[in-house]
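Fig. S4 source data, part A: sequence.
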Amino acid sequence: MSSDDDETKSHYEHHEYTTHNIVSFAAVTETIHKPSSTSQSNSYDPFDLDVYDDSASMRSVSTYASTQQNLKRTMKSRHLAMISLGGVIGQGVFVSSGANLREAGPAGVLIAYSLIGFIVYWVAYSLGEMSAYIPVSGSFTIFCRRFVDESFGTVVGYNYWAMWSVIVASELVSIPIVISFWSQGKIEGWIFSLASLVIIFIVNMLGARSYGETEYWFSLIKILTILIFIVVGCLVSGGVIGDETYGFKNWSDPGAFTPQGVNGIINSLAFTAFSMQGMEIVGITAGEAGNPRKDVPRAIRNVFWRILIFYIGTIFVMGMVIRYDDARLLPTDDLNTGNFTISQSPFTIVFTEGKLGEVANVMNSIILITVLSCANSGLYVASRMLLALSREGIAWNKLVYISKRGVPVYALICTALVSLVACTTSQIADGSVFFVLTRMPGMGVMITWSGITIAHFRFRRALKAQQRSLDCLPMRAPLHPFGDFFDLLACVVIAVIAGYIYFPSQNAIGIVGTYLPLFACIVGFIVLKLWTGSKLIPLKDIDLDTGRSDYGMPPTPPPTEEEKANKGPLYYRVWKRLIHWFT
């Protein structure tokens, strides 16, 4: 696998990346590849490069390349495949899912995860379609600025950067809680938080390949844990192991839904969205993928099955074995304050029901890996987003600096400092600060997904307005435009009702923590519109060419292991696919 990846990577680097045909997307103020006056006839082919005036493009590329070191395309296809999965498997699956089950019941939580799963599926495909076509780091911010409105893209970008900076901080705060299982409070918690930040900072400073390799193994551990959980849960439910046969007994007693009914489902939606956020990481990594036209679609196309197995499957098995009124489940109030123990994890409860012996140490280790993985991913994507904002001229210009390893050093340092400040503030203050930190990302991800959806809708309309064939796309999002309409409507509704649970009790901290990102984005958008005077970009003026992944494409590279695995008898293809998926 690695030899094919290296061969493909060197093949593309020689023909393509040395001429900067893919990465030129920022600091380019000229509109490139405009058709000449002779190309306005009915025979005009927008993909015939002979009818374009390339002089502006070449000047733009040259200027761009001379002002900065570029990101390195060192991310392998196996890294991208695992990141597309590992980015959405976080603490929410191993811990918070128990609070969701307690809030909504087995059927209610299954509905919540299925709804968010549909949103994630279409968002992932929409972003994958654009990222495979124009593979740039910080992708959807660039797309929002280029396809919709510059002020809109700026707000979406800063929202995403702030969201992940806050997530990194909240994960750093959680690390001492996890480690306290072993340390018993004998060591100050801030030491573990600081040490963890230093570790993930070093991993990111070593470059994209270091991050990709780390996340590959972290993700593999999480995947194996979930697969084991599903198998053990099914055996426990069927009475094969353990002392009791469950089946669907818990769906009738105490019931499929909690007494809260629909309110329980609504209350769990925000937590569910937070636990499933991260699928858009693939779009961020596209700017450092070795072969984005193949690697991005390959990672995205597995999204449906991964959501079905690792989220829906996990929740379904959990609901069969654990009653929603089980006293061992994590209460929502404790989830908000970060006050949890490993014994409250649904995974620990199911393994205990299966009489598998003492599993607390193992599960605590896995949750620690999960928290580190999430913080590691957060630092990576936030730094790349800040780099993209700087390249667009809407952040401090010093942040564009990239080291010889392809690391945006100043953007990484800036993000780490912001996360450190937020983490320190949370640990010094009372639990209300941590509560706000955990509530803000839920709204932030709704804003991000809405931005991606709107950008994709405008992207498709621009292709049609400019008479571009869909055959140019390396992959296509299914059910367009229905998927975009569904995503946008669902995100808006969830954003509006996200703080619903806090109004009856007049919980000001909960309301502020939930709606602060939305309020900040609305105010920021209005201020930017008034300040810059930006307008909605006409469809015919949208730039669909800068950074396109098919410009200067060399001949087709040698087939990969996955392509070779598609040939041969069925048993051989299945076996090769399993080997490829895990390696």
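Fig. S4 source data, part B ends here. The domain at 2-23+70-535 is CATH 1.20.1740.10 (Amino acid/polyamine transporter I).
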